Amino acid sequence: MPLLPTVAIVGRPNVGKSTLFNRLVGKKLALVDDQPGVTRDRRMGEASLVGLDFRVIDTAGYEDEDPDTLPGRMRRQTQAAVDEADVALFMVDARAGVVPLDEEIARWLRGSDTPIILVANKAEGRSGEQGVLEALALGFGDPVQLSAEHGEGVADLFEALLPIIGEWEAPDLGDDDSSPDAPLKLAIVGRPNAGKSTLINRFIGEDRLITGPEAGITRDSIAIDWIWTDRKQVPRRVRLIDTAGMRKRAKVQEKLEKLSVADALRAVDFAEVVVLLLDATLGLESQDLRIADKVLQEGRALVIALNKWDVAQDASSLFNGVKKALEDGLSQVKGVPLLTVSAETGRGLDQLLETAFETREAWSKRVPTGELNRWFERAIAATPPPAPGGKRIKMRYVTQVNTRPPSFVIFGTRVDQLPASYERYLINSMRRELGFGAVPVRLMLRAPSNPFDRDKN
Predict the structure, then answer these.
(1) Pfam families per the record (predicted)?
(2) Domain membership flag for residue 179
(3) Is 69 labelled as part of a ligand binding site?
(4) pLDDT at position 60, please?
(5) Is residue 173 part of a domain?
(6) 61 is in an annotated binding site
(7) Last residue of a domain, which of 135, 165, 195?
(8) 228: which strand partners?
(9) Are residues 120 and 202 located together in one domain of the fold?
(10) Same domain, 353 and 405
(11) Which residue, of 328, 363, 398, is where some domain finishes?
C-alpha cells in the first residue's frame, strides 16, 4: 500500500464534494443523493489525476451547529480532515453563488496551516458565471472551475494540485493480499446502534468516526488503515471497515438507507474477516442470524462479538443462550467464534483481533497434497459413501482449487447422487481434521469428463 499525499475536500452541504470524490477515485465509493448531509464520517480513497496519485478525503458538509449536536460532531470530523491533509479543496456551488456559510468556512480555512485550493463546482454553462466571480471575494485567488458530475475542468484541478503535491515521494510497501503480513481487512457489521463506530474509535484510540445515541449515524462504509500491536509487541496492519446498520428489509424504506445497506453488503464482499457485533442489552435477534448467514454465503470468515458486555444483565445465562441460538440458527457452520467485548471500556478487544487474525489464517490455508489425500482416505474408510438404488458411488480423489475461502473438488462416479448429508459430513470432517475451524468451506463434486471412463465394479 503506497504512502500518498492527502487531499481533503471541504465545503458546505450539497455542493458536490462526494461527486468529485467519486470522480477522482474512479468509482462510486461515496453515497450521493440530492438531499444535503448524506456524508457524515470522512471517507478516504486512492485517486489518480493525469498520473498524479494521492489519497483523497471526502468530508461531511460544514455546518454552523452546536458542537454536541450531530452536525456539530460532523464538523469536528471535517476539521480533523483538514488538519491531516497536505492540501484542501474548498468547494463552492457556482450556480448558487457564495452564501454566508461559505464565507464562514473561508474565515476558518484562512486560519489553517493547510494550503487551500478554491474550487467552483457546477460551473459548466453560463449559469455559474456569477458564482465564480463572487468566489473571488473569499480570498483564495482564482477558483478552479469544474463540473464534478461531467468531469469538466479536471485538467485545471491537476495544474492547481501539481505545485503542492507533485514532488511527493514515498516508499511503496508492496502489499500482497495473500501474504500473512498484508493488512487484515476487517469489516464490522450489525444492526443499527450496536456500537460499530464506537468499537472502531476504541481500536484506533481517537474519535475518528461519529458516534452518538441516534441510530443510523453511519451511512457510508468507511475504511481506516491502522496498526495494532499484539500481545507479543508485534505490529500488525489492519484495515477497519465500519458499515451502516442493517435493519430488516421490511423496515428499510428511505432511498438513502437502501443505498447505505447496499454499501454495507459491498463492504462484506471486500472484507476477509467480518465481525458481527451484537448488542448484549438486546440479545440475539433473527436479523442478526440473517446478517451472519449472508456473510457465510459470501464465503467470508465470521467472528461474532457481544458488545456492551460491561452493562449486560445475567451475563452467564445470556452468553449460553446466544451460543445455543447460534448453533441452531447457523447449522451450516458449527463453532463460529463468540466473544464478549466492550467498545466503551476496551474489554476483550485484543482477544477479538487475535481471533480475527487466526480466523484469516484458517480462511487462507492451503492443505498440502499428501495431508489432503490422507484425510480423504480416512474419511471414506470411516464412513463410506452410500449406494442409492444399490449402485455404488465411487469417490476417486480430491484436490484443493482455491483459498479464501478454502474450496475443494471431489472427482468420482455418480457423485451427483451423493446426499447432502454426506457432503456435510465431509465438510465437517475437513474443518475438524484439517484445521479450518468455523470458516466457510466450499465443496464441489465432479464426474469424469471422459464419457468412456465408467466405473465397471
Answers:
(1) KH_dom-like, MMR_HSR1
(2) no
(3) no
(4) 73
(5) no
(6) yes
(7) 165
(8) 236
(9) no
(10) no
(11) 363
Are residues 353 and 299 located together in one domain of the fold?
yes
Residue 124 in marked binding region: yes
Same domain, 128 and 17: yes
Q: How far, in Å, CA of 345 to CA of 241, rounded? A: 20
How far apart are alpha carbons 177 and 72 in whole angstroms? Answer: 38
The parent domain of residue 116 ranges over 6-165
DSSP letter (8 states) at residue 308: -
pLDDT band at 185 (very low <50, low <70, confident <90, very high): very high
Q: Is 170 annotated as a binding residue?
A: no
Per DSSP bridges, beta strands 235-242 and 273-279 are unpaired
SS3 assignment, position 306: strand
CA–CA separation, 27 and 25 (whole Å): 6
What does the mean pLDDT of the chain come to? 81
Residues 152 and 20 occupy one common structural domain: yes
**Annotated binding-site residue? 451:** no
Cβ burial, residue 448 (10 Å; 0-12/13-18/19+):
middle
- Residue 309 is given by DSSP the state G
pLDDT at 194 > cutoff 70: yes
Dihedral in degrees, nearest 10, Cα atoms 308, 330, 223, 264: -100
Same domain, 375 and 265: no
Query: All 3 cell numbers of residue 298?
Result: 459470501
Residue 62 annotated in ligand binding? yes
pLDDT in tens, 377-390: 999 999 999 988 88
Q: How far is CA 311 from the centre of its chain?
A: 28
**Could you give the strand order of the β-sheet that contains 235-242, starting from the edge strand earlier in sequence?**
222-229, 235-242, 184-189, 273-279, 301-307, 338-340
CB 378 within 8 A of CB 371: no
123 is in an annotated binding site: yes
C-alpha distances (whole Å) from 166 to each of 3, 48, 146, 150, 175 are 14, 12, 20, 25, 24
Rounded to an integer, what distance in angstroms lies between the CA atom of residue 332 and that of residue 326? 11
Q: Are 11 and 154 in a shared domain?
A: yes
Alpha carbon dihedral 94, 99, 101, 104, in 10-degree steps, equals 100
Which CATH number covers residue 273? 3.40.50.300
Q: Is 192 marked as a binding-site residue?
A: yes
Rounded Cα distance, 228 and 239, in Å: 10
Total tally of structural domains belonging to the chain? 3
Per-residue pLDDT, averaged over 360-375, amounts to: 95
In a domain, 139, yes or no: yes
